[in-house]
Design a protein that fits this description.
The longest helix has 65 residues. α2 runs antiparallel to α3 and α4 crosses α5. About 3% of the residues have low confidence. This protein has 164 residues and is mainly alpha-helical. The chain has one domain. The protein contains 6 helices and no strands. Helices cover 80% and strands 0% of the residues. 4% of the residues are buried.
Length: 164
Amino acid sequence: MQTIRTWLESFDGYWAEGLPQNQIYLKLFIIIVGLLLLLTVIRLMIRKRMSESASIIWFLLALAVLIFAIFPITAIKLSELVGIVYAPAFLFMAAVFVILFIIFRHSIEISVMESKVNEVSIMLSLSLEENKELKKRLDLLEKDINREHSEGKTDVPAEEASIR
């Protein structure tokens, strides 16, 4: 385990300040979660189970998790740049904004899909009505043909005269 700690301490001075062992494990856990998220997004993109726009968002989110886990000083510097003193508060605020963005984007997609479903249901309803009308006309034509055949007005056999 000492080699992992030495490897992690080599990234920047922030790691070399003598972090407790549990923080090293926490950072390793966050790095593993970030890598798993990144690999999952790539796998879903390859299998076409996630749209390109959604995969870009999740890919960037996974990269941000990895960057903040490997270089935690980045979160501190970004929070100072924005004017927030406490870096975890900045990360929490950023997470809330990301979640709101995702929810807003999904709301738009749901609205578009609802309008498409309404359009398809109207088209289906019109097609069913048209189908009923065509069946009625077909029945009337078949009755006319059968009546003409029974009256002897046609020389085509009834089996051949049937439209169906």
